[in-house]
Amino acid sequence: MLSKETIDIIKSTVPVLEIHGKTITSTFYQMMFENHPELLNIFNHANQREGKQPEALANTVYAAAANIDRLEDILPVVKQIGQKHRALNILPEQYPIVGENLLGAIKKVLGDAATPEILDAWAQAYAVIADAFIGVEAEMYREAEDAPGGWRGFRSFVVERKVKESDVITSFYLKPQDGGAISSYMPGQYITVRVQPENESYTHLRHYSLSAAPGGNHYRISVKREDAAPGKPAGIVSTYLHNSVNEGDVLEITAPAGSFTLDQEQTIPLVLIGGGVGLTPMISMLETVLKEQPERKVTYIHAAINEGYHAMREHVEQLDAEHDQLKSYVCYEKPLGQCSCHKSGYIDLPWLQEVVSKDSDFYFCGPVPFMRAVNQALKEWGVPEERIHYEFFGPAGTL
Predict the structure, then answer these.
(1) For 207-249, what is each residue's pLDDT tens digit?
(2) What is the pTM of this model?
(3) Tens digits of per-residue pLDDT, 23-56?
(4) Which residues are known catalytic residues?
(5) Which residues belong to the annotated binding site for NADP(+)?
(6) Which residues are annotated as a binding site?
(7) Nearest to 256 by CA among 140, 106, 380
(8) Which of 125, 152, 201, 336 is least surrounded by CB atoms within 10 angstroms?
(9) Chain-centre distance of CA 317, in angstroms?
């Protein structure tokens, strides 16, 4: 337990963190990778380069400081981050490394303002927060290993099939190399792939949503190839998977994880909205509902740039034809010709009001601007916050 004096000191630093938080976390990552370059085998280099990871950590540190006297309030955040840590195989012995470099970054950025009293208070607070993460994650490791077909750490899977779904999205069907059972998962969860492309100094890990309903003898991920764009290099892992990984090759993955999952206790109408490759968890949820909740009305909406970017269209159309409970819609931002879609341009509130009921459970995933627009539309419509669910690909952000 932290003393009242320590809690007061931590809370006094909250305004400073609000101003300098991202500078501190950016400095922290720079220092940590200089001192422990082996950790570059774990962290997403692109998220570092684009500032997403430092910003996400700054938000977490700020929330921890603001709630240091009631850490139970941020337990949902701890569990969400814990899921990603377990999927990345983060180990308890790595936490002291993080603490040492975080304190070093605070001292470096704040200079003389980081008094010995402040640094000592933060050292105590970090120890408490780290223990919370380690405890939560230990239970997650146990659950993943003890589940039927489960395992700890990385396991080798063979690419049984590789299927092109669109101009930029390809699906990979993965079966365990050892021929054993595989653990089930909740629709919306992801697996983590570890690869080391030729000419890369470090291993690279990426989370990919499972794009099929659970219950089969394989996993399916559907990966968008992230090509180079002005000011943005090509995605290391996605281009490697598309260009270099073929049927029969072996990939290392961790057991399914993630907290963005479908609430199957609900029976009210379900609305699934996917933008681009954000369709992956939506397809898993859609297939699951059609299998397990045949009485539940579901609307599936997919937004893509155009026909060439649209993955799994025929699959969804077939599901729509086979299931009376399902209605599906397509929105193309820039149709190639005469729009073979239900809407051109962007999804907006007036159109949503035409095709779905406000009294629904809404799940959506896709690029951040897309999710921001959908979230704003739903809030403007007056949809209660507890019925709005979304997932960030990568570090958590805000809409």
Answers:
(1) 999 999 999 999 999 999 999 888 888 999 999 999 999 999 9
(2) 0.92
(3) 998 999 999 999 999 999 998 777 677 667 778 7
(4) 95, 137
(5) 276-281
(6) 85, 190, 276-281, 392-395
(7) 140
(8) 201
(9) 27
